[in-house]
Amino acid sequence: MANLAKAKTRDRLAADIALTFVAIAFVVPMVWMVLAAFDAEATLAIQLPARWSLTNFGAILTEDVAIRPFMNSVIISAGTSCLVVILALFAGYPLSRYRLRYGKQYIYTIVFASALPITAIMVPIYVMFVHIGLVDTLAGVIVFRTAAELPFAVWLMKGFMDAIPADLEEAAWTEGASRMEGVAYIVVPLLAPGIATIFILSFIENWGNFFVPFILLQSRDNYPMAVSLYSFFGEYGEAMYGQLAAFALLYTAPTLLVYFLIQKPLQKGGLRLGGAVKA
Known about the structure:
By secondary structure, this protein is mostly helical. It has 12 helices and no strands. The chain has helices at residues 2-37, 55-60, 63-97, 103-115, 118-132, 138-162, 166-174, 179-190, 192-207, 211-216, 225-228, 241-266. The longest helix is centred in the N-terminal third of the chain and has 36 residues, at 2-37. The two termini are 43 Å apart.
């Protein structure tokens, strides 16, 4: 028993040390970003600013540098996330409620599609978008990102719906509600944590996505913030570190804000079924 306790303590200590190093790897860049954003003479070194200043923010808070890319990112991320949630809801419901003949095969196809690398389909998608006029448009990025994220979102939505008893809808039907009313007034409210989870995952994924906008967008006026970061690097790799840090700080803020706004339903740990079903 003593040896077993020592082994558990040793394993726990090793895990704590490993997690500490992982935490440091994430925290150190964040510390540099915050300090450098308020330092007019920032370098790659982590140091307190000799004089705290908002000069870097003043330099980037212009329409061309930060405001337009910020709005483009909001349009792409929010638009894609809303479409993903709505389409996943309509696709997940029949997969959860109906006994489809090829239901399992469809689920396997969804899982396989979610594992496909975007680079493998980028060339044919680009050619198709050229012919239908979606290249260099925010709508094209939204369409592509929605299609890319739907498989995983549908799989998640089906799992959330499986946890909601069908008896709740049947009780609503006996009271005269239609199927759509049952979904709108019974299923969707109970799915709020699941919908919030899918939305926030989609929003964060799209906010940080660089590859798709970089390939599909050609005009600087359409660039989101992920692509606009290029403007802070010079021809030989030199960077304006203070402005880069300020831009990165603004770039990071919306994802943190979305998380804090939606974390309450996420922390409930599941669907709100308490008291809905009698034992």
